[in-house]
Structure formats: C-alpha cells, structure tokens
Amino acid sequence: MIKIEGLHKSFGQLEVLKGIDYEVKEKEIICVIGPSGSGKSTFLRCINLLEDITDGAVFINGLKVNDSGTNINEIRKDVGMVFQQFNLFPHMNVLNNITISPRKIRKMNPKEAEQLAVELLEKVGLADKAKSFPEQLSGGQMQRVAIARALAMQPKIMLFDEPTSALDPEMVKEVLDVMKQLAFEGMTMVVVTHEMGFAKEMGDRVLFMDEGKLVEEGTPDAIFNNSTNERTKAFLSMVL
Amino acid sequence: MTIDFLDIRFDMIWNYKELFIRGIWVTLGLTVIGYLGGIILGLFLGMGKLSKRKWIYYPCKYYVDFFRGTPLLVQILLIHLAVIPSIFGHSLGYFVSGATALLLNCGAYNAEIIRAGIQSIEKGQTEAARSLGMPSGVAMKNIILPQAFRRMVPPLGNELIALLKDSSLVTVIAANDLLYAGKVVAGAYSRFWEPYITVAILYLMLTFVFTKVIAYVEKRFSNSYVPSQRRRIFTFGRS
Fold first, then answer.
1. Given this model, what pLDDT does residue B222 score?
2. What's the burial of A238, exposed, middle or buried (CB within 10 Å: 0-12/13-18/19+)?
3. Which residue among A73, A83, A135 places its CB closest to the CB of B225?
4. Could you list the residue range(s) of the whole structural domain that residue A226 is in?
5. How far is B234 from chain A (nearest CA, A)?
6. Number of domains in chain A
C-alpha cells in the first residue's frame, strides 16, 4: 500500500534520511521507534510529501508521490495525518474543524458533513464538544478531535507523528485508546511513537531507526525481546 | 515677534466654512478609497512576496521597494503630472490622481503588514490543512488568512491613521482637501494662526474618530476565538 524506495532527505548539508526501503501492506500497523533526531518524523512526513523528497521514491497505491505529474492533493485525501502539536484550527469550533475538509475538498453537502462529524465525535468520545473551540479543550481532547478531523476525509492510511508526546501523562491513554480502536477496525497506520507499550501491543511490525537509517525491522517480539542488533538493544535498554 | 491672542479672528474661518467642510469630505474620500484599495492591493502584493516563483516574487518586491523607498510627495506629482496624462492624454483631475497615488503607496505598506501577518501563523496550520488535501489557495483562504487577519489589525490601524495624515500631501496638486482649505484662507487674509490651527484641530478630530473605530475593531478581534468569552467592548452598568 505504501512503498518506499531508496528514500533520501537532506536539509541543506544535513542528510537526515540516508536511503530507506520499506513496504507497508494494507491494514498493517507500523510503529516507528528510535532516538530523537533519528529521522523518524521526517520519514513520516515524506510519505505525504510534507517534506520534499531529495532522492528516491514513495508510492501510495502504486502512485508515485514525488512525481510532478501526480496531484499530491488527491493522494493526501486518502492519507490522514495526526501531529504532535495537534494543529487544530483555533478560529473554528470542533464541528467546523472536522467538516471543513469534507465540505471544501470532498464537496460533501454541509448536512452530510455535519452528520459525519457527529458520528466521528461519538467515536472519539467527544460528542458533547461539537460547539467548543480548541482553546477550551484539554490536550487529550484536542488530539482526539485532530484524529476525528483526519478521519473525516475517510482516509485509507493514517500517519501519526508522535501523537502523545505533547500530552500530560494522564491524557495519553485516551488518545491511545482511540488509536487502538482504529487499529481494530483495520486502518492502515504508520505511527511514530515513544510509547513502547503501544508499539509492543498494537504493532504488526516495529521499525527501529537511527541516524537516518532503518536499523532493524520485525515483529514487536523480534525487536523488543529477541533483537541481536547492538544499537537496538542499547536504545531499548535506555527506554524500557 | 509678538502673538496677539486677543486678535484671533475665527469669523474668517466661518466665512469659508463650506471650503473646510468640503475639505473634510475630500480628505475622507481620498483616505477611504486609498486605504481600501491599498488593502486589496497589499493582499496580492503581500502574498506575491511570499511566492516561491521568482517571476511573481520579484515584481512584488520591486514594487514595494519603490513605493516605500520614494517620497509620497514625489509619487503624487509623478502620477498626476506624468503617468496619468501619458496614459489618458489629459489629466483626470486631482481626485483621481490623489486617490491613485495614495492607493498605490498604501498598498506597498500594507503588503509588508500582510506578509508579516501570514508568516506569523504557525507552520503547523498550513501543514494540517495541506495534509487534509487542501490545495494551497484553499488553505490560505480558509485557514491562514482568517487567523493572520487578527494579527494584522493593529498595524493596519496605524497605517490608516498615517494615510489620513499623509493624504494632506495631495494639496500640492491643488486638490481641495482639508489642508488646501487652510491654505486658501491663509492666502486670502495673509493670516496663518487661525486657518492652520483650524486645519490641525479638524485633522485631530478625524484621527480621534478613526482611532476609536480601530480600537473597536481591535477589541472585537483580539482575545479569544470563543464568542462568549470575547471581551465586552462597552459595558453598561454593573457587569
């Protein structure tokens, strides 16, 4: 479903991604772990072209993302993204945050979009917050709205960029629970995370990245319990 | 030199009151047209200056550099005596020239305000909008500009006040604005205190009213996005 070939990314002189190959299959939950500065977020952001790709290619459903003939907006309709800092639109209430993209991009009529938003808010447990503004919500609530907003485009793939890293500890669970629910429903997900518990429990595959390279890849059991890679073991001993 | 305060003759101002009233309207007209046009022009120039395309960026940049880097007085003369006559073959009158010059000048200043306002919005907002599939134009209109506008209100307000006062420069092309009325009276009586003090007071009254309007708009758009939590602007009685 997502195919990554020889992905390189440089910011000026700094090479952040040094050639990554990987393929994500449909309905897989991929958890990307690794130390800060290892390029995990950049890797994720290259998938929906929020970062220009320096070299290599990303294909989503067979379409090359970094091709001048590809309409990136068409691809992004099918690829939802959740950010560390939520990035809700502060000038709109929760309902409008969720309905704006289906209305403007999918040309859904406002009634339908609103109904969809209400359903999604129920799903993330915030049905009573439809008329609230982002500034009135807690971090965990904002992130759940952000997930609902991404889901409103009815994406086939969801990208999560450290979705719980900016949250108070007691709010992490409510966000992870929503993500688990999504996983059970069969969403294809790529999750950059520091939540090792989530990676262990939910990941179909775990990717360990360091210094712009994909160091090791495998099932959670293979990575967390049976890794023979020194770098992986050193990292896990620090975080577990 | 002595100033004889007992000899102030405001009757001569009264005799020319129509000229002053007309002057107020001309000044207001020039300011409002120049300002509103300048906002629309500034919006395009400001976004142009943010463009990655060089053929859009450079013309906008040079335009802004020219109009901010040359005196408005020179621009007014150039437009009235050179640009408009060479395009239309004859003058279109002081009002058209004056309003055009103010609009073109104000657009350059507003461009910088609008550019800075857009740039001040967190990058995450654009990224979130783009990640939802919004083309950049849709993201700009629905996500960035509504937020950026709030941050532009105070500097755009300053620009309005500045423009109101700068509009007095059109006197040089014999536009019968407020300052011109003062000059006429000064010339007619060879007295300077009364007409220019009157002009100053009238400008002060105009800027006072504009300042109040700006303060209202600023309060309306400051603080919270939550309607019920916006600061009350006028509170009557106990709150």
1. 72
2. exposed
3. A135
4. 2-239
5. 23
6. 1
